[in-house]
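Researcher: Structure prediction, please.
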Amino acid sequence: MIIIKICIFTLISKYNMKSSVFFSLFLSFSTIEYSQEISDPDEKKYLEDDRHKISLVGGISYINNSFGLFYEGETFRLKPNDSFYTEFFLRYRWVDASISFAPKFVRINNDDDTKGKTKYFNLGFAFFISPKLRQYVNFNQVKGLYLEDTKRFFETVLNDEFTQELSNDLMQFPDAKYQSFTGDTSYLLFGKKENYRTYTNMTYKPLKNDFVLLTGLVYQYNLMKDTNRARYQGLEINDTENGNSVTKDVRLTLRTGGGMQKIIGKNWYAIVEIYPQIHYGYLIDENYNEFNVGLNSYSRIGFDNGKWFFGGGAQLNWINSNNDNFYSTTNWLFRFGLGFRIKSPKFVDKQFDKIDQILK
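Model: Predicted structure follows.
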């Protein structure tokens, strides 16, 4: 019986785009003209009115995950099918909540008999616990994977014997689950939280040209579970002798950098952020660890007239690692969202007023 050890990493795109694009965008912001910033009295009035509104966003994101499988000194790819996810964001005062999943009625994620089916779920919360400190927590789960390099895997296992008749069918792991628990604590070295909120979520309306500096720590605990059952050409392969296999890893990322926000005309805006980072990962089951450097960057352009808004953005997370079994070297995410604001119920305002008094 084949015993498979799963070593986790996340790859959000196949394309190795150059990070210099983000640097160019970052530097070119200073040349954007025709800004129409809001005055200080109007800003104060808008922020007060915003305390009594709920922001809702519906959107879609593109993501392409892969997970590393290390066997006989080679790397193979375990992949889920899903690429497009539906997302919903809700923001009221200082609390942001997000949920995303792949609806069953959306037939654009390549679920079929060859690759199997994938289920995706993500839940996150963000809030400011002080004028300078922002906290983010997130849970992510991907269930149902297939082995992209199935033929090469069998050629490695069988030592090139009896492999001439192998087809291009894929081995499926229908029960396999990748679970990630993530926290992100950011501290504003320079800038106001009222302005920085627009960087982190499009539910906040950008009011002024802005520049922020911050430092933050991202911490993750990841698991790959239930990889004991596999399916190939209708044949079930079970590794019951070794129980339920679980691979665990811990990752820490320290990043420090800055972001720029530009108001374009009356209701348009653009945002670019760049954060150099130091990354540490520890693969618990293998007793393996690695330090590395990288870059996290994000850009977004959008429209917001105070009542409804929309925008699109791209995120790059790059780590200078050659060990594809542990984590990827380039991560990409693309997102588009459309939202609106409604007046919050009075009973909700009253409850949050009490909480605000306690937090002061």
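Model: The chain is about 15% helix and 50% strand.
Researcher: Thanks, that helps.
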